[in-house]
Structures are given as structure tokens and as C-alpha cells.
Write a structure and sequence with these properties.
Blueprint: H1 11-19, H2 29-39, E1 43-49, E2 52-59, H3 61-69, E3 73-82, E4 87-95, E5 101-109, H4 114-127, H5 129-132, E6 137-140, H6 144-153, E7 158-161, H7 163-173, H8 176-179, H9 183-197
Parallel strand pairs: 3-6, 6-7
Antiparallel strand pairs: 1-2, 2-5, 3-4, 4-5
Domain ZSWIM1/3 RNaseH-like: 44-154
Pfam families: ZSWIM1-3_RNaseH-like (PF21056)
Organism: Nasonia vitripennis
Length: 202
């Protein structure tokens, strides 16, 4: 992420956005949104229910530019229990032609219930309407709610399981008794799969 001075925005900046004002008013959502809008020129949308914060979506101009440049494959992942409020942080990430990852949008959610996740996905779609039409694949973890919402909101795209969970699934399903193989055969098969998954070419 890059702010208006072209200074690289690190994940720590996200933490700071929710904590810079803690001496005046702890966990001030409005102050965090104002900081994102003024310092980083971000588009910010907030979801509330009964005047209670439920989620935030934001994306900077630099993020949107990267989305326009490399929209073909989208990775979506979450980090849990961040900040003092224990929110979920959801990243929308693309990869450029040199294999470098770029965050193109961020969601901060009180939880990952279907209505909140759907609200976030729909805002991402609305904010990147032309670019996201070119997205052909979505890589996620195995979270069923997230995958179900993606199928609904981005019904033209294909869903893929991320590398980490692919390897975990194979590690669990390649079973000695079920497949009637030896321990050595299982280890060889998983080692081969690991090399295939992490190969730099097809």
C-alpha cells in the first residue's frame, strides 16, 4: 500500500490506524476512518447495525491501480483477532507479472458471518467493477462461508483452494490403511506433491 507521499504503507500502519487515537478515545472507528481517508487517500465504507460497528472496507488509489493492472487471479485471506477489539482482517491480494503480491483492498470485520462477509465482497465488487469482471479465479482457504459468498457475488469466477490447505488435505487423505500403501510410499507421494505445488512452472 502507498500513501499520497508514495511512502510504502506496512501492515503496522493498519494497526496504527486503529490505535493512534487511543489516548483520546480508545478504538475510535471514526478516527481510524478519517486517518485512512486523509493520510492515505483511501475510499472507506463502514457497516453498522443498531449503531454498532460491524465492518469496514477500504482501498487506496494505488491499490485500485494494481487491481486494474493484474485482475486475473484474486487471493482472499483473513487474519484473526487483531487490534485490541479482536477483529478479523480480510485481505484482497493480487500477484503481478514478477510474482510479487499486492494488497488491493482490506476488510476489517467484527466477525465473518455471512451477511458481513457478503457486504464486504459486494463493496469490493462495486469499487472495482470493471477490473473484477476480468477476474477468472479466486484462491481462498477452506472457509465455507467465504467460498459460498464468493460463488454468489462473483458467479463467473472459478474457486481454488490455497496452497497451504491443498497440502494439508492431501496429507490427511493419503491414508496408509485406506489406500493400502506403506509409510514410505505415503512420504514419497506427499514429497512429490509438495514439489509439484511449489514448482515455478507447470
Amino acid at each position: 500500500m502507498v500513501d499520497k507521499t508514495k511512502k510504502q504503507i506496512m501492515p503496522q500502519d493498519l494497526y496504527n490506524a486503529f490505535n493512534e487515537t487511543k489516548d483520546k478515545n480508545a478504538n475510535d472507528i471514526e478516527a481510524a476512518a478519517q486517518l485512512l481517508e486523509t493520510k492515505y487517500i483511501a475510499k472507506v465504507e463502514i457497516l453498522e447495525e443498531d449503531s454498532q460497528f460491524q465492518g469496514m472496507y477500504f482501498s487506496t488509489p494505488e491499490m485500485k491501480q494494481n487491481m486494474k493492472k493484474y485482475p486475473e487471479v484474486m487471493c482472499i485471506d483473513s487474519t484473526y483477532k487483531i487490534f485490541s477489539l479482536r477483529f478479523s482482517l480480510m485481505f484482497f491480494v493480487i500477484e503481478d507479472g514478477e510474482g510479487r503480491s499486492h494488497i488491493v483492498a482490506v476488510g476489517i470485520l467484527v466477525n465473518e458471518s455471512r451477511p458481513i462477509v457478503k457486504w464486504l465482497m459486494e463493496w469490493f465488487k462495486k469499487d472495482n467493477l470493471e477490473a473484477v469482471k476480468k477476474t477468472r479465479g479466486f484462491i481462498t482457504n477452506k472457509d465455507l462461508v467465504e467460498r459460498s459468498v464468493i460463488r454468489e457475488v462473483f458467479d463467473w469466477g472459478r474457486l481454488f483452494i490455497c496452497q497451504f490447505h491443498t497440502l494439508r488435505i492431501f496429507g490427511r487423505e493419503v491414508c496408509l490403511t485406506k489406500m493400502k500403501i506403506t509409510k514410505e510410499q505415503k512420504e514419497n507421494a506427499l514429497r512429490c506433491l509438495d514439489k509439484m505445488v511449489k514448482s515455478s512452472c507447470l
